[in-house]
Amino acid sequence: MSKNILLLFLSDVKIKEGIVSGAPYKNVGGEPALTTNESAVRYLLQKSPLDKLFIFSSKKIRKPIAGYRTGDGREQTHLDFFLERVKKFWSDADWEVYP
To answer: Which of 82, 2, 86 is nearest to 48 (CA)?
Structure first.
C-alpha cells in the first residue's frame, strides 16, 4: 500500500511591525499563506491526499517568534505557528517533528 508523505524543512515566520507577513501564492486557494511550507502543503493537498508530514526544525524554529504575540498575548514558536495554520485546512493532519 502506498503512502503520500511530505518532508518539510521549516523556515522562520516573517514579522513586520508585529504582524505576520502573508504571501498570495498562486494555486493554494483561500486566504494568503503565512509561511512558505504552508503554501506547499496546501497546494499538494489539492492534488492528492497526504498521509503524513515529517517536519525537520532547527533550534530557531522551536523558539518563540521575536516581536510576535498571539491574539491573547502569548508567545508562539515558529513551529507552533505552522502547525496551527496546517490544522485550519487539514484538521486530521498527522505529523512527526525532528529533532
So the answer is: 2
Joined grid coordinates for residue 8: 518539510
* SS3 of residue 83 by DSSP: helix
User: Whose grid coordinates read 524543512?
Assistant: 9
Q: Name residues whose C-beta falls within 8 Å of residue 15's C-beta, 6 or more positions apart in sequence.
A: 21, 65, 66, 67, 68
Q: How many CA atoms lie within 13 A of 7 on its CB side?
A: 1
Spatial separation of the C-alpha atoms in residues 22 and 31, rounded to whole Å: 9
Neighbours of 99 (CB within 10 A): 7
Q: Rounded to an integer, what distance in angstroms lies between the CA atom of residue 84 and that of residue 35?
A: 11
pLDDT tens-digit map of 73-91: 999 999 999 999 999 999 9
Q: Which three cell numbers stand for residue 49?
A: 491526499
pTM metric for this prediction: 0.91
Q: How far is 29 from 24, CA to CA, in rounded Å?
A: 9
Q: Which three cell numbers stand for residue 11?
A: 523556515
